[in-house]
Specification:
This protein is an alpha/beta fold. It contains eight helices and eight strands; from the N terminus they run βαβαβαβαββαβαβαα. It has a single domain, classed as Aldolase class I (TIM Barrel).
């Protein structure tokens, strides 16, 4: 599965950009939400998500790269977020992480937890039975167009092994530097959902680029 990140889309023609993705077979759209505090960049938020809703029958995969995510999850869900993923590193302790997971699940959305390149899987291991998705960052969060960091592969393999051994049901997602060269590596490691931005939105032939990711 592929989730194009609209961080790389032509925002002046966002509806047309999403329709292009739907036309080649995409089902997920990835929303990178940045607050300029947790990450050194600012993107878009609730109004953009709300304006799109589910007009394209897409699954809205919302990635909160923000401080205090628990304050905002309800509004993102009301705006159309189907999967709400927050960063483990954005919260001060395990109690806050558990509270945020419970809040998201209690509001009827699927819950994801994301880890930065330097955060080990061990840090989130206790939460894996309770979540729907783990997002492994293969670049430092905050900016598009970065190169893939290969140390993410060992974390993906570890998450896949835990999932199989414990019979957990979470999806493994990867975000950062995903293209036709890195997609086979992460898929072999156990990834289910690929986030790809500039590789798709800037492709001269979108259908071929998409098919290269899923083959």
């Amino acid at each position: 599965m592929v989730a194009p990140s609209i961080l790389s889309a032509d925002l002046l023609n966002l509806g047309d950009e999403i329709q292009r993705m739907m036309d080649v077979g995409v089902k997920y759209i990835h929303f990178d939400v940045m607050d300029g505090h947790f990450v050194p960049n600012i993107s878009f938020g609730i109004p953009v998500l709300k304006s799109l809703g589910h007009k394209f029958n897409q699954i809205n995969d919302v990635h909160l790269m923000i401080s205090e995510p628990d304050r905002y999850v309800e509004e993102f869900i009301k705006a159309g977020g189907d999967i709400i993923t927050f960063h483990f590193e954005a919260l001060k302790d395990d109690k806050e992480v558990a509270k945020t997971i419970g809040h998201i699940c209690g509001l009827g959305a699927k819950c994801g937890i994301s880890i930065k390149p330097n955060t080990p899987v061990e840090a989130i291991k206790k939460f894996l039975p309770f979540i729907d998705l783990v997002l492994v960052m293969s670049v430092e969060p905050g900016f598009g167009g970065q190169s893939f960091m290969e140390n993410s592969l060992s974390k993906i393999k570890e998450l896949d092994l835990i999932r199989k051994e414990m019979n957990y049901g979470y999806i493994i997602e990867v975000d950062g530097g995903i293209n036709d060269k890195t997609a086979p590596l992460v898929k072999e490691a156990g990834v289910d959902l690929l986030v790809s931005g500039s590789y798709l939105f800037k492709a001269s032939n979108l259908k071929e680029a998409y098919e290269d990711l899923i083959k």
